[in-house]
Specification:
single chain, 89 residues, mainly alpha, 3 helices, Spore coat associated protein CotJA
C-alpha cells in the first residue's frame, strides 16, 4: 500500500502521526480482571433457542441496488453507519 494512503486519516483524526504521538504518551496497564464465572468450552455449554420471524417478501431492490447493498431485500439492508454515515437506496 502506498504511504499516502496509509497516512490519510478519517476526518483528519486517524493519521499515522496522531497515532504515533498518542502511543508515546500512553501508559499501557494490564490489570487482572475478575470474571463472575469460569469460562467454558463451547462443547460443554447448553444450546440456546432463538425465535426468528418469517421474512415477508414484499419488495425487492432492482439488480444494481441489490449489488450495491449486498441484499435483494430492503428489510435486510443494515449498513454500518459509523461516523461517515450510510444509507440504503
Amino acid at each position: 500500500m502506498d504511504s499516502s494512503r496509509m497516512n490519510r486519516g478519517c476526518c483528519g483524526a486517524n493519521n499515522m502521526q496522531n497515532r504515533r504521538a498518542a502511543s508515546n504518551n500512553m501508559e499501557l496497564k494490564m490489570e487482572p480482571r475478575n470474571f463472575p464465572r469460569k469460562m467454558q468450552h463451547v462443547d460443554h455449554m447448553i444450546p440456546a433457542m432463538a425465535y426468528v420471524p418469517m421474512q415477508r417478501f414484499e419488495q425487492i431492490y432492482d439488480l444494481s441496488a441489490a449489488l450495491k447493498n449486498g441484499t435483494l431485500f430492503p428489510e435486510l439492508c443494515k449498513p454500518f453507519c459509523g461516523k461517515g454515515g450510510g444509507e440504503c437506496l
